[in-house]
Amino acid sequence: MMEMILAEQCPAHRQGLHQAHHQKRPRPMDTIVMQQRSCSWMRMMGNIAHIAEQAYIQAKLQGPDTWITLPKEVWPKSWRDGKYRQPVVRLELALYGHPNSGSYWERYCDGEVQKVGFEPIPGFPSCYWHPRLKLLLVVYVDDFKMGGCAKNLAEGWKLIGTKLRSTLLLH
User: Fold this and answer.
1) What is the pTM of this model?
2) Which pLDDT value is given to residue 9?
């Protein structure tokens, strides 16, 4: 789920939510703790939720080629003439269920949010700070939470929307 949290003020940068110690190996519990702490602050300000559209398949599959068979109901018309019994195709997108899809999505998402100005918070994997907009972004799988100055949130989501697909869940 992609969730947008609205805020009436800009205290995140003053409360040190964007500061941490640098470490090389990701620690998922740090991200969960950061998400819980930042959500408590964000919840006080109100919220709007978005959901990431088919998050994993926004990322390309990497590594060795993976081949799959497709169910007949998704075959192109040209395959249904009896010419094929069980065609095999190369998997190109990070499909849910593939053992590495989560990692491919995480790397893809990380790169895309950085391209629009969100900077990784050292020591907190999947947590980002946008210095110009003063926005905190926390990503957990396909769940995005953003908080900061209410006047900047729309621009923050617009920036992310140029790279990642999401839809409004509730208002």
Assistant:
1) 0.68
2) 36
